[in-house]
């Protein structure tokens, strides 16, 4: 499914209060089916706000979002949430029910308002939990799992509604390295095999390099910039938007190409001859 934003902008103004728009320039982009867009920007730049406006959880002050050329305002809420899966940041909420029940809630658009989830809904939930690698936690309470495990459960909750668009707010931020890889590989597979379009907020440049077909970069008092990953994520633009000196590293191993960015400020000030590469193993 195609998702598009035309000239969108937003401000958190109270009644009668005049506040400037959050974004220095109106935001426009088109994301084709099965493509992945990463949104990068410093803390407070407006990434979460942007996701909420894109999905209609918050109304744009100007501009609009469209799915398959239809303005969101013309799509019923029930149809909308069948098509869009939204994964918020996990640490901002506490739940009192089991992981399995949390995931089954994602089936809501398919269950009548007076009906209970059926066997098939629970089967879907278990499939999704299996997909993200935490099916063994199905019966545990959400209060008894780690932040990372809860994050994985929230991703499973969106998968059970068979979404055509996935919107994820920093889904990897609480996960250990292995689970980050699980999530990134899962997203890439969903995009490729099921043509699910994904928009993901991330603070990790190397995740954008691995995942994204296009990048949207925002920062306070800077124009939003959107384009192909390698055009947007240059050392000079990272300096401009994040105010930090980063060096882009590219290396090859077994015919695979790896790209990442490392802050120069984190360099260890010692002689290279003292470095021991894996020599303590
Ligand atoms: N409900 C709100 N009312 C007023 N201002 C808000 C509200 N929510 C967020 N803001 C402000 O809007 C700006 C953008 O916030 P937002 O959460 O979208 O940023 P972000 O880029 O997602 O940040 P982070 O990377 O830290 O998660 C911030 O200055 C924030 O303080």
TrEMBL record:
Coiled coil: none annotated. It holds the Pfam family ABC_tran. The keyword Signal does not apply. This is Putative ABC transporter ATP-binding protein. InterPro entries: AAA+_ATPase, ABC_transporter-like_ATP-bd, ABC_transporter-like_CS, Metal_Ion_Import_ABC, P-loop_NTPase. It comes from Solibacillus isronensis B3W22. One of its GO terms (molecular function) is ATP hydrolysis activity. Keywords: ATP-binding, Nucleotide-binding, Transport. The lineage of its organism: Bacteria, Bacillati, Bacillota, Bacilli, Bacillales. Transmembrane segments: none annotated. PROSITE patterns: ABC_TRANSPORTER_1, ABC_TRANSPORTER_2. Residues 5-245 form the ABC transporter domain.
């Amino acid at each position: 499914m195609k998702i598009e934003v035309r000239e969108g902008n937003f401000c958190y103004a109270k009644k009668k209060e005049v506040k400037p728009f959050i974004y220095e320039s109106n935001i426009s982009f088109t994301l084709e089916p099965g493509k992945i867009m990463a949104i990068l920007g410093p803390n407070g730049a407006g990434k979460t706000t942007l996701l909420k406006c894109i999905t209609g959880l918050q109304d744009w002050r100007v501009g609009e979002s469209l799915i398959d050329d239809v303005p969101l305002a013309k799509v019923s809420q029930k149809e909308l949430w069948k098509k869009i899966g939204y994964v918020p940041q996990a640490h901002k909420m506490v739940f009192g029910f089991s992981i399995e029940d949390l995931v089954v809630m994602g089936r809501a658009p398919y269950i009548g308002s007076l009906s209970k989830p059926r066997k098939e809904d629970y089967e879907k939930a278990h499939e999704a939990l299996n997909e993200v690698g935490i099916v063994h936690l199905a019966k545990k309470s959400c209060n008894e799992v780690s932040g990372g495990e809860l994050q994985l459960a929230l991703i499973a909750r969106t998968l059970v509604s068979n979404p055509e668009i996935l919107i994820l707010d920093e889904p990897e931020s609480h996960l250990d390295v292995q689970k980050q890889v699980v999530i990134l590989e899962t997203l890439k597979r969903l995009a490729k095999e099921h043509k699910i379009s994904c928009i993901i907020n991330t603070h990790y440049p190397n995740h954008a390099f691995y995942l994204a077909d296009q990048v949207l970069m925002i920062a306070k008092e800077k124009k939003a910039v959107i384009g192909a990953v390698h055009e947007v994520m240059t050392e000079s633009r990272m300096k401009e938007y994040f105010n930090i000196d980063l060096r882009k590293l590219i290396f090859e191993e077994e015919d695979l190409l790896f790209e990442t960015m490392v802050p120069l400020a984190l360099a260890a000030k010692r002689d290279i001859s003292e470095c021991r590469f894996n020599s303590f193993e």
